[in-house]
Amino acid sequence: MRSGSHQLFSTLNTMSENAASQGRVRIGIDVGGTFTDVALETSDGRLETSKVPTTPRAPEQGVLTGIRLAVDQAGISGDEVRSVIHGTTLATNALIERKGARTALVCTRGFRDTLRLAYENRYDQYDIWLNKPEPLVPRHLTWPVAERIDVTGTPLEELDEAGVLEIAGRIRDEKIESVAIGLLHAYANPRHEERVRDLLLRECPGVSITLSSQVCPEVREYERLTTTVCNAYVRPLMARYLKALGDDLARAGICGPLLLMTSGGSICSLETAVSFPIRLVESGPSAGAVLAARVAARRGDARVLSYDMGGTTAKVCLIDDARPQTARIFEIARAARFMKGSGMTVRLPVIEMIEIGAGGGSVAGIDSLGRIEVGPRSAGSEPGPSCYARGGSDATVTDADLVLGRLEATSFAGGTMPLDTQAAAKSIRRTIADLLSMDVMTGALGISEVVDENMASAAQVHAVERGKILRQCTMIAFGGAGPLHACRMAEKLGIRQVVIPDHPGVGSAVGMLRAPVAFEIVRSRYMTLATFDAAVVANLFSAMADEASTIVRQGAGNVPLVEHRSCFMRYLGQGHEIEVPVSGGNIGGDERDLLQAAYDHEYARQYARNVPGMDVEILGWKLVVMAPMPDDPETVMTARSDEGAGSPRRLLVDPATGQMVDVPVLSRESLAPGAVFEGPCVITEGQTTTVVTASFHGRIDCNGYIVLEAREATPS
Fold this sequence. Notes:
The longest helix has 31 residues, at 221-251. Helix content is 32%, strand content 26%. It folds into five domains: 2-94 and 239-280, Nucleotidyltransferase, domain 5 (2-Layer Sandwich); 100-233, Rossmann fold (3-Layer(aba) Sandwich), CATH 3.40.50; 362-449, no CATH class; 518-626, Dna Ligase, domain 1 (2-Layer Sandwich); 649-705, no CATH class. The radius of gyration is 26 Å and the shape is globular. By secondary structure, the protein is of the alpha+beta class.
């Protein structure tokens, strides 16, 4: 975990605890592959939530439906809404499905094949049939232009403007919608890129243009180009969608500004999202990690596994000291699961997590060896699982959960979507049970066990790669299907404590209400400590602060802002760098010695030693500017003891034995701090259900969270 990212989330927690509530209504919206979740926070801190099926052909329709439900439940009018914070998978889906704009790339002459050469390696060297994914921009739409700038930003060859005008003609002939401009070393001097943009806009005024010097002004040519191309590819689509959504919200009487959740766990303005839609690729999952970090901070949990299982995917994130692990590199649309290098590499701030196709809508079947397999294909919201009775016929995880007694057919999604148990059983019998000569209940349990094993294996691999021991972690589970499977996941991973926060069924939407308005900028400006120039760095940070502050104020208004500064350092000749904080955020005459000491400390912390006598080089500089956030609303509840007496009961399959057991059904609304209960049992609430297995007992803590503790022995 890098110290600059530590600073961001540490400040988020501190500022959120100390800031006063601004007393206005805010709405968080998470558009997933299966459901659209809405969380509305009223001026007195009360949360109203809704969960509606996503409308893939027009996602804004599901958004408006969910907002109307939440607004009606809160008894407010649209003009009371201060802001709408939105997370969407639209950019991610467009990249995965390759349904973005017709895009061209303008590059430096001699570098036409950078996207195809990539890292000049194979992600699986032993697969002789390996096919690397094709770049988003084909070679015939990659157009080189004569120009050259060196690593210091000094022009070596002036831009061939006549060649740029020829490219403008090709743009018209090829009916190009979006252009990515990625010239060599533009991060050091963007003058040539900006001139290409101006010439193209003069000749082709309707085209969308993305500059690498704005999207990713950093070294490493391939990553800078792929990030720029991905941004250009989705930019027209996202601009149309966000404009349409903004217009629809205005017509619905929602007067507050539309803000967007980013993959780095912060909020940005609509203008920033339209310019840099690539920063939205993991917006929903990152909001879930923000929620888990806030829960961890409130409870004082030092080591946490965040587990978010929705309708389409399951996301796992490691959180240390209330700070999610972050990364600067991310891969989209991997051709091979868990195979690094098989997807499109982008360089952007992202909360680091692993995401697999294991959600409530994941489709089950039989593989060529006669084994049950689940996912990654999902039934989505249209037609959805068989039990939705919307035309779906595949057996899914939700169908299995219904047959196993984990779900109540009449109260699913807050009672807005009654489920068809017979249709679920029929699909499991046809696609699983009859083919394997077993009864429907065993088939349903097989589906559930396979998906739980898939998620547990992915979490274990993710933890091992990062040197973490999951047995030492507390699991924080949320998402529509997360609390249903959390205990069984914990049993498989050896985790002894599971926390279910309030409103877990719409956890990512709630997380958006807890995220800061912030913006991160990284600039590559090479120097060594031996040649350190404080004046150059001070001017660089000043320009970065002006740019980032302007962007943050678009979404936060005229409020006090906080800056965090860091840089990326390595020993001279090394291939990778580590992030080191810039002490005090200021650059002065003694900063060279302070940076050396900070680098020595951080390097020793990560690698347990230093290399004496080696010069250190600095590749880039990072600035995070953020606005304060109001504190979590405090919930005042009267403590009670056991609320299980006299509860209704339900038949539930025990996954450890495969036997049907009669268990109490508790309502979460009736459980206040101090309430205790024993597993097995079921705890129901508006948007999800928590299944407590026999190996756990639980209580409600002072925050109103469900806390499940493992007994002395847990089944495997």
